[in-house]
């Protein structure tokens, strides 16, 4: 019992300590090369040593023509080829050209193909290069007084990686919360014959049946070079979390989804607790300049991440139900205190509802932007530390 009380106290201390934390290490580059070989890893640490994915070479195109040339080179030389973004966040090992060895493989990284974001305010659309970061698109769109209605919660994704994997937020309204359902066109580079220079750019428009397959193709139909997304007039959201008893959750969830445009429920079965997110669109004039700096995507002190992982492992191996429950209580208690990372004025959580612009309320990932100068914090799952990990 003493140990659990100690643990609780320790975690509270660390957790509160993390509020004042500002410096941390940004995620590692998923591609690492030495003189003879390159290794691709997953930024979440799900896979990534030399045995998992090694490739002979990696290219970093900066324009659509360079991207086309890379596909042409692979086609002409019969190389196995895959694309990866600067983030490499998807958990299955889909971006690896070959698990059998590296001799005939080429990896195309879109990390440097990220310069163009074109907004068409009249037709409410944005077209971005495949490698552009989601956050850059959101910020540009919001600057133009518009909003992207759907986006994943995690912002560390590229535009093409995000649609290719069917990444989503939460909504049953309108076109729904999956980003690929808001795609209204794309350009894809596919192999061609010799007279076509071994690769060609195919434009796929909204009415083209092929769009349904191409937009969620996990990188196997071709290399997406540009993505066109539909937009809406800028709007704000009002969010309140209700931490409550989970009784009747099976009856409540349909109503919840119908009532709140961006509704969401987090269920903690062992705590008999459900956290209902009351989340609705409100007009731009509504006062409030809040942000959703989701707790799970903030920088964490490395010591906390390691301690939590070590405690989980200990409780798991000793089958300690009390330990697991104490840890769960602490996490839930803390999430409640800080509104899960909502910040009314962009700095701290002072109470519900928190109102802010769509671009600041849907998607977050502040652990991505940590300066390299200090090394005491990181994204909680950073594979360089033995931090948090969810087995999916
Ligand atoms: C901490 C964390 C939080 C997450 N949160 C969410 C979330 O809120 N919602 C959600 O839905 N998912 C979430 N995910 C999953 C992940 O973010 C998505 O799978 C995301 O789409 C990955 O994007 P990426 O740019 O990193 O793509 P990558 O991992 O680089 O690539 C993903 C796939 O797309 C292909 N691809 C990449 N670029 C191209 C291109 N130009 N042309 C063709 N194919 C291409 C790759 O070959 C690969 O098959 C999360 C993952 C982590 C680790």
Automatic annotation (TrEMBL):
From which source organism is this entry?
A: Gossypium barbadense (Sea Island cotton)
Q: Which Gene3D superfamilies match?
A: 3.30.465.10
Kindly provide the name given to this protein in its UniProt entry. L-gulonolactone oxidase
Cofactor annotation: FAD
Q: Which UniProt keywords apply?
A: Ascorbate biosynthesis, FAD, Flavoprotein, Oxidoreductase, Signal
GO MF annotation terms: FAD binding; L-gulonolactone oxidase activity
Pathway(s) served = Cofactor biosynthesis; L-ascorbate biosynthesis
One GO BP on record is:
L-ascorbic acid biosynthetic process
Q: Which InterPro entries match?
A: FAD-bd_PCMH, FAD-bd_PCMH-like_sf, FAD-bd_PCMH_sub2, FAD-linked_Oxidoreductases_BP, GULO_Plant, Oxid_FAD_bind_N
* Keyword Chaperone assigned: no
Q: Where is the signal peptide?
A: 1-24
